[in-house]
Specification:
The chain is mainly beta. The protein is built from no helices and 9 strands. It starts with 10 loop residues before the first strand and ends with a strand.
Length: about 110
């Protein structure tokens, strides 16, 4: 299901702390519209500090877009992407924790 409101949650592993459950902290990331064409909005909630990086990763694992994040709502230009399925990843600068979501580009 790649419609609106689709979210995925993953865990990160830190060798000293074990598994960190981002959803236990209430952190979520929504990417919309999905499917998208030229622009997407990334909404991050449940964090005190939004400083970090947003990456868009293609099916081959290559980072095709990388953008600094400094607020809860970011807009990303996806006009250069070809039709396909992508992973959107947010990496928090302070903690290193990550949030993931899927994005479908349909041209």
């Amino acid at each position: 299901d790649f419609g609106c409101g689709y979210s995925q949650y993953f865990y990160t592993v830190d060798s000293t702390e074990g598994i960190s459950d981002l959803t236990a902290n209430g952190a979520t990331m929504d990417v919309f519209p999905n499917p998208a064409n030229d622009q997407v909005h990334v909404n991050i909630s449940g964090l005190q500090n939004f400083a970090g990086t947003i990456q868009v990763i293609d099916a081959m694992g290559r980072t095709v877009i990388e953008s600094k994040c400094s607020s809860a709502m970011q807009q990303i230009n996806t006009g250069s992407l070809v039709t396909g399925l992508y992973t959107v990843m947010y990496i928090n600068s302070a903690s290193g924790n990550r949030l993931y979501s899927r994005l479908l580009i349909a041209k």
